[in-house]
From TrEMBL:
<feature type="domain" description="Peptidase M24">
    <location>
        <begin position="2"/>
        <end position="196"/>
    </location>
</feature>
<dbReference type="InterPro" id="IPR052433">
    <property type="entry name" value="X-Pro_dipept-like"/>
</dbReference>
<keyword id="KW-0378">Hydrolase</keyword>
<keyword id="KW-0464">Manganese</keyword>
<protein>
    <recommendedName>
        <fullName>Xaa-Pro aminopeptidase</fullName>
        <ecNumber>3.4.11.9</ecNumber>
    </recommendedName>
</protein>
<keyword id="KW-0479">Metal-binding</keyword>
<dbReference type="InterPro" id="IPR036005">
    <property type="entry name" value="Creatinase/aminopeptidase-like"/>
</dbReference>
<comment type="similarity">
    <text>Belongs to the peptidase M24B family.</text>
</comment>
<dbReference type="InterPro" id="IPR001131">
    <property type="entry name" value="Peptidase_M24B_aminopep-P_CS"/>
</dbReference>
<dbReference type="InterPro" id="IPR000994">
    <property type="entry name" value="Pept_M24"/>
</dbReference>
<dbReference type="Pfam" id="PF00557">
    <property type="entry name" value="Peptidase_M24"/>
</dbReference>
Length: 226
């Protein structure tokens, strides 16, 4: 293992590092698995998938999942030479803010631009509480002690390997969100290498979209019944 795995069902997924890996797995829950292997070269992977226990997402779960997927797609598109490392988060978090605004979860009168204001906004961060990306290599959070100008403000160059991992987390007791969203925690994380003209998703073999995830689980369940 490249790091302590996070296996969290139901509301436990809303605790970012549920490394206890305990709790009941109930029909209708989502289960979030954040895990990666370290290979012989000592480089490590860092991948997260959020899966419906029953095999299919409920309407509310799908709405949250698809929003996170859209944010991840936008973040991945920002992984290209010439962009700054911080551009990945900026791209993904804008999509998160747009969805939260469309769902009516931001305070009255607060626009997407208002909440994205670094000094006077950030209301969306109640439900997306972490960064979208980190460098990946010999350590699962490689170079995390680098100076800001060498990390957050640095330019992306070919060969850099990064994670892209937006999420949305609605705790079971959060009265600021509709009841159907409470207890839903979703994160999707993939490993990306910056190339000469864009990027390549190294973990592309693992299904990501909600439809592909459901088809994946259906195949696994069918094989288990044989």
């Amino acid at each position: 293992m490249g790091y302590e795995s996070i296996c969290a069902a139901g509301d436990h997924a809303n605790t970012l590092h549920w490394i206890k890996n305990d709790g009941e797995v109930r029909e209708g829950d989502l289960i979030l698995v954040d895990a990666g292997v370290e290979v012989d070269s000592l480089f490590t992977a860092d991948i997260t998938r959020t899966l419906p226990v029953s095999g299919r997402f409920s309407d509310a779960q799908r709405r949250v999942y698809d929003a996170v997927f859209a944010a991840q797609e936008t973040g991945i598109a920002a992984c290209r030479p010439g962009n700054k490392f911080r551009d990945i988060h900026a791209a993904a978090i804008r999509v998160i803010a747009e969805h939260l605004h469309a769902w009516g979860l931001l305070p009255d009168g607060v626009s997407v631009e208002d909440t994205l204001d670094a000094d006077h906004g950030q209301y969306h961060r109640r439900w997306m509480v972490h960064g979208t990306s980190h460098h990946l290599g010999l350590d699962v959070h490689d170079c995390q002690l680098a100076l800001r100008e060498d990390y957050m403000d640095a330019e992306l160059t070919p060969g850099m390997i990064l994670t892209v991992e937006p999420g949305l987390y609605f705790k079971a007791d959060d009265l600021l969100v509709p009841e159907e969203l409470r207890g839903i925690g979703v994160r999707i994380e993939d490993d990306v290498v910056v190339t000469e003209d864009g990027c390549e998703v190294l973990s592309a073999g693992m299904p990501r979209s909600s439809a592909d995830v459901e088809a994946w689980i259906a195949r696994v369940q069918a094989e288990a019944r044989r």
